[in-house]
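Colleagues,

For the teaching module next term, I've prepared a clean inverse folding example: a structure given as tokens, and then the sequence designed for it. I'd like students to try predicting residues themselves before seeing the answer, so please don't circulate the second half yet.
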């Protein structure tokens, strides 16, 4: 993956003990501003109501949404996959037949050439919005990360870097 020099970005923190939820607010804002495409990769995808509503509203505006998270095979702990699937229904059912459907993919760690599971848990946490804006950080989409962990991320306002990250994601998904 080539290194990109980013010209502009901002650091965003979550500090629950100070009641700061700035990362969640940044994600919701990015989802609300999206016009064409949202790509989200997150280890634990158990989004709260605000995040789900922002994604649903984006899909109703015609924004194409793709989400990659862990499967039951790769999730550690495995029950997180079951919990995540509970929220898939809300996202997929609400978007079905309405604007642009929300696509959810689960990482299984299987090597395509050998058909064997050789890769472990997906631990990445990032989003790419319209191929122009990206966010990379430490926060999972779950209540534990939101309410108890101090987290940090960087919102990159760099189209070249966002486009490279988007292209990298699509190469991995092929």
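(Answer key — instructors only)
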């Amino acid at each position: 993956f080539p290194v990109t020099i980013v010209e502009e970005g901002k650091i965003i923190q979550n500090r629950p003990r100070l009641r700061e939820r700035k990362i969640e607010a940044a994600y919701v804002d990015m989802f609300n501003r999206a016009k064409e495409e949202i790509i989200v990769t997150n280890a634990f995808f158990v989004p709260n109501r605000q995040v789900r509503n922002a994604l649903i509203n984006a899909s109703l505006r015609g924004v194409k949404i793709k989400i990659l998270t862990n499967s039951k095979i790769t999730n550690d702990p495995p029950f997180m996959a079951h919990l995540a699937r509970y929220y898939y229904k809300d996202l997929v059912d609400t978007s079905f037949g309405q604007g642009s459907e929300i696509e959810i993919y689960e990482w299984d760690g299987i090597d395509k050439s050998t058909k064997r599971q050789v890769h472990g848990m997906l631990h990445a946490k990032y989003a790419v919005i319209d191929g122009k804006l990206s966010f990379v950080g430490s926060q999972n989409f779950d209540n534990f990360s939101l309410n108890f962990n101090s987290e940090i991320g960087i919102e990159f306002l760099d189209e070249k870097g966002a486009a490279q990250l988007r292209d990298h994601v699509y190469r991995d998904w092929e």
